[in-house]
Amino acid sequence: MNLIREKTFLSNSVVKMVIEAPDVARKRKAGQFVVLMTDEKGERIPLTIVDSDVDNGTITIIFQVVGKTTTCLSEMKVGDSLYSVLGPLGRPTEVERFGTVACVGGGVGIAVIYPITKALKEAGNRVISIIGARTKDILILEDEIKAVSDELHITTDDGSYGFHGFVSEVLQNVIDSEEVIDRVFAIGPVPMMRVVCDVTRPSGITTIVSLNPIMVDATGMCGACRVSVGGCTKFACVDGPEFDGHDVDFNLLTSRLRMYYVQEKEAIEQFRCECNE
């Protein structure tokens, strides 16, 4: 039984859930994810494990409502049970004492960067965090990120809070200030991760990104989540989800993410029509 213990809307379209999953809570590490199903006939969707509580046997997930399955998930209530929660999956983040690290998160990617930031801080790194959103009202986890950072920068696209601009611009400013950055971790929309990699490439700063390709079985069997890294085919579910961003073929990743755009749009529209009947 994977009971939903807590449910909170962090913004109009971003939901935080605490779910019973004692085995996952006990074994998970930063950077890993679960695959869950809302019901027996539901779609399998991968979601990063944001946090866990071993004593209570729970994990925390944060997701954005974008399609049929996430809409269904967002409508579930405290006390409801998910059909299945499989995990922890994927390779954990490489965490060691690098020195000074920059953790860059955009949009709902802030939820994914949080456990990594926390683990890096606990490993003794100096952590510079840069998080951003389109507007102030959809910025998430500011207090949580601040608590595990030595330095926090906030950006908004519209200038409603913090720096008026993008996370990549702030990262460039930090690099230009001659602060020695030993490693960068960047997670967010694909265009954001691509630009961050462009910023760090001239300085040769290793930049780790977390990829979110379409995923089905999440065990390396189906090949749906294949990506090209350094000219080689990798499966995000078992080889990742984290890779050296300087080696990622972002053009291929973008095209594969849009493969089922029409079908996804049709599915959510049909679901909404059925709900209104």
Characterization of the model:
This protein starts with a strand and ends with a helix. Helices cover about 30% and strands about 30% of the residues. With about 280 residues, the chain is α/β, with parallel strands linked by helices. The strands form 4 sheets. A 7-stranded mixed beta sheet has the order 12-11-10-9-13-14-17, sandwiched between helices. Strand 5 (about 50-55) and strand 6 (about 60-65) form a beta hairpin. The protein contains 9 helices and 17 strands. It has 3 domains: about 1-90, Translation factors (Elongation Factor Tu (Ef-tu), domain 3, Beta Barrel), CATH 2.40.30; about 95-210, Rossmann fold; about 215-275, no CATH class. The protein has helices spanning about 20-25, 70-75, 110-120, 140-145, 165-175, 190-200, 235-240, 250-255, 260-275; strands at about 1-10, 15-20, 35, 45-50, 50-55, 60-65, 80, 85-90, 100-105, 125-135, 150-155, 165, 185, 205-210, 225-230, 230-235, 240-245.
Features:
277 residues; 7-stranded mixed beta sheet; Elongation Factor Tu (Ef-tu), domain 3; alpha/beta; 5-stranded antiparallel beta sheet
